[in-house]
Amino acid sequence: MSRSDARPRSSVTAQRDAPREVRVDRVACTGHGICAQLLAGRVSLDPWGYPVVHDGRVGVLEGDRAVDFCPARALYWSDRP
Q1: What secondary structure does DSSP assign to 14-81, as a single string?
Q2: Taking Cα atoms as reference points, which of 35, 16, 17 lies closest to residue 25?
Q3: Architecture of domain 21-78
């Protein structure tokens, strides 16, 4: 008898559960500020209107929405800790 939780995790499950966070490509960013609106409390804007990420660890739906709505395509998912 084997327990279901003793099975090795599939690579798909491992990728989904891996820690991810939203980051900003500072070269691509044009300072629209939408990320600060969509990720309020985790991203703020500096005096010039560019994002400062305080905590990029967000939920998948919230992060996907911010990445999709970035007009400069400067937001991206990172797997690095």
Answers
A1: HHHHS--EEEE-TTT-----HHHHHTBTTEEE-TTS-EEES-----HHHHHHHHHH-TT--EEEE---
A2: 35
A3: 2-Layer Sandwich (3.30)
Identify residue 45 by its one-letter amino acid code. Answer: L
Q: What is the DSSP letter of 7?
A: S
pLDDT tens track of the chain, all 81 residues? 444 444 444 444 445 555 689 999 999 999 999 999 999 999 999 999 999 999 999 999 999 999 999 999 999 999 876
Question: At 11, which helix (H) or strand (E)?
Answer: helix 11-17
Reported as a single tens digit per residue, the pLDDT across 24-44 is: 999 999 999 999 999 999 999
10 Å Cβ neighbour count for 45? 15
Q: Which amino acid does the sequence have at 34?
A: I
Q: Whole-prediction pTM value?
A: 0.72
